[in-house]
Amino acid sequence: MLGQALFRFGQKLLRRRQLEHLVTEDVPCRRLNTLDLVALGVCSTVGAVIYVIAGEVARDKAGPSIVICFLVAGLTSVLMGLCYAEFGARVPHSGSAYLYSYVTIGELWAFITGWNLIFSYVAGTAIVVFAWSLAFDNLFGNQISQTLHENILLHVPQVLAEILGFCVVALVLLLIGLLTLRARESGLFTKVVTLVSLLVLSFVIISGFIKGDLHNWKLTEEDYVKAGLNDTSSLGPLGTGGFVPFGLNGILHGAATCLYAFIGFDNIVTRVEEAQNPQRSIPMGIVISLFISTLMYFGVSSALTLMVPYYQLQPGTPLPEVFHHIGWAPAYYVVAFGFFCSLSASLLGYMFPIRQLIYTMAKDGLLFSVLARIQTGTYIPIMATVIFGIIAAIMAFFFGLTDLLDFMSIGTRLAYSLVAFCVLILRYQPEVKKGGNEADVQDESGPAEEKLTLQGLLFPCSPTPTPLSGRVVYVCSSLLALLLTLLCLVLAQWPVLHSGTAVWISLVVLLLVLITGITGVIWRQPQSSSPLPFKVPALPLLPLLSVFVNVYLMMQMTAGTWAPIGFWMLIGFAIYFSYGIQYSLVAESHLR
């Protein structure tokens, strides 16, 4: 009895949503072409983050080697973009990693993915709140913060004074967000904002080549001493000088944070139903927008660290401030204008996916139904927008900018890893005809009593996927996910490995052998031959490489970063096991 109960409980956690059950309501007009999607991807990716994150990473984590951090992050995001592109071609429905996980690996993982994405988007909105407050204050010479401290500080504690300042800005942003969300984002607005951002950032890059000094990439201890920053042989928080002042660990930590800079491309997938030719334009939009974003980030980070020594970068908005340093004061306002344009685009870029994802999960029964209520006439889930807008404002106060960046990076990295995992599994599954089910697949694919043998494992008889080969890939992929996670945990202890401890090295070798063997088993299984406009090349290596890089970079985060995410996940599990598992629409369809 206990075994049967556990089996039924496990089936509930892994129940999947069928593609043919995805019915689109109120299908919008298909008016977005490839250029519109590229503009949307670039607008969402090259947003306010470049004005903020570059200075934070260069000053505290990587120094001039931030250019390498952006290249590593860009390459990782391209790998993920390819996986998203295949899903966009395979599943022409508006969605995200949540939908893809639901279709492929089951309800529990779909909830985990969606809940993490909500946390990431809320953190992204909080970053916009944070950036607005800093930028607005800097634009007026920090007079706002000084006034708050001088006048309010006499009557309330300092912390409350800072809360008041952040809450004012957060409230304004929330109202702006609610007003702008009353209508669909205009394609023309997106194109204009993207063009302005690219022009301003191109101006920054050209300025870097004109006013930059290569010596800022070759700083030594003498330069720090001359600047009055260090008079000892240990440079401490300034690093060790040179192009890579914080070493390999600095590059890895910086790349893990810089991954946040590329988190906007998946917004393209949420507009599938508005694309004129989604099977073609979605993959092209994702890949082209990521390529443009990588070039812009590389150029801007190079210009920034060439114009100003990395240790002199100020927190907040270093990109406009750098023009005060080189004596181009009027350019400060040009770049600041571009910054505010990017903030406006970022607000739309985060608020739209948040409301869409929450509405979808609530409609699926995994979140409370009240979150799926829409405002009459505007079709906006007003309750979800207000609740999570308030959470974003709270996060903007209680956490620093670097913490918010790390939160968003971890949440999206986990979701992206699951998408790569889903691509790996789905490519090796037998086809399900429209209106069919898994039982029909089993009947059409051959004998129902397939037996697993070593020869059949390495040399499958069928040239097309069968239910048995699909289960083999599912189990092997799950084992690989576990082994890759263990490998990343071990590699995160790099100082111990570098010391040559035999136990750790033997463990790494054992894990690599197991990973190679299981990957070989997956490679021998037949793939689906269904024609698609785009398919991820080099399966199974490319999705596994994407999972490895994402997980390894997540392991670079500190325990303090993981703690709030763990608390968020506990809240999510409480909601799912007390509400979602009972009221899931997939569960109701299984009972019929």
From TrEMBL:
<feature type="transmembrane region" description="Helical">
    <location>
        <begin position="286"/>
        <end position="311"/>
    </location>
</feature>
<feature type="transmembrane region" description="Helical">
    <location>
        <begin position="407"/>
        <end position="426"/>
    </location>
</feature>
<feature type="domain" description="Cationic amino acid transporter C-terminal">
    <location>
        <begin position="534"/>
        <end position="584"/>
    </location>
</feature>
<feature type="transmembrane region" description="Helical">
    <location>
        <begin position="65"/>
        <end position="87"/>
    </location>
</feature>
<keyword id="KW-0813">Transport</keyword>
<keyword id="KW-0472">Membrane</keyword>
<dbReference type="Pfam" id="PF13906">
    <property type="entry name" value="AA_permease_C"/>
</dbReference>
<feature type="transmembrane region" description="Helical">
    <location>
        <begin position="152"/>
        <end position="176"/>
    </location>
</feature>
<dbReference type="GO" id="GO:0005886">
    <property type="term" value="C:plasma membrane"/>
</dbReference>
<comment type="similarity">
    <text>Belongs to the amino acid-polyamine-organocation (APC) superfamily. Cationic amino acid transporter (CAT) (TC 2.A.3.3) family.</text>
</comment>
<dbReference type="InterPro" id="IPR029485">
    <property type="entry name" value="CAT_C"/>
</dbReference>
<protein>
    <submittedName>
        <fullName>Cationic amino acid transporter</fullName>
    </submittedName>
</protein>
<feature type="transmembrane region" description="Helical">
    <location>
        <begin position="35"/>
        <end position="53"/>
    </location>
</feature>
<keyword id="KW-1133">Transmembrane helix</keyword>
<feature type="transmembrane region" description="Helical">
    <location>
        <begin position="534"/>
        <end position="553"/>
    </location>
</feature>
<feature type="transmembrane region" description="Helical">
    <location>
        <begin position="502"/>
        <end position="522"/>
    </location>
</feature>
<dbReference type="InterPro" id="IPR002293">
    <property type="entry name" value="AA/rel_permease1"/>
</dbReference>
<feature type="transmembrane region" description="Helical">
    <location>
        <begin position="108"/>
        <end position="132"/>
    </location>
</feature>
<dbReference type="GO" id="GO:0015171">
    <property type="term" value="F:amino acid transmembrane transporter activity"/>
</dbReference>
<feature type="transmembrane region" description="Helical">
    <location>
        <begin position="331"/>
        <end position="352"/>
    </location>
</feature>
<feature type="transmembrane region" description="Helical">
    <location>
        <begin position="243"/>
        <end position="265"/>
    </location>
</feature>
<feature type="transmembrane region" description="Helical">
    <location>
        <begin position="188"/>
        <end position="210"/>
    </location>
</feature>
<feature type="transmembrane region" description="Helical">
    <location>
        <begin position="379"/>
        <end position="401"/>
    </location>
</feature>
<feature type="transmembrane region" description="Helical">
    <location>
        <begin position="472"/>
        <end position="496"/>
    </location>
</feature>
<keyword id="KW-0029">Amino-acid transport</keyword>
<feature type="transmembrane region" description="Helical">
    <location>
        <begin position="565"/>
        <end position="586"/>
    </location>
</feature>
<keyword id="KW-0325">Glycoprotein</keyword>
<keyword id="KW-0812">Transmembrane</keyword>
<dbReference type="GO" id="GO:0012505">
    <property type="term" value="C:endomembrane system"/>
</dbReference>
<dbReference type="Pfam" id="PF13520">
    <property type="entry name" value="AA_permease_2"/>
</dbReference>
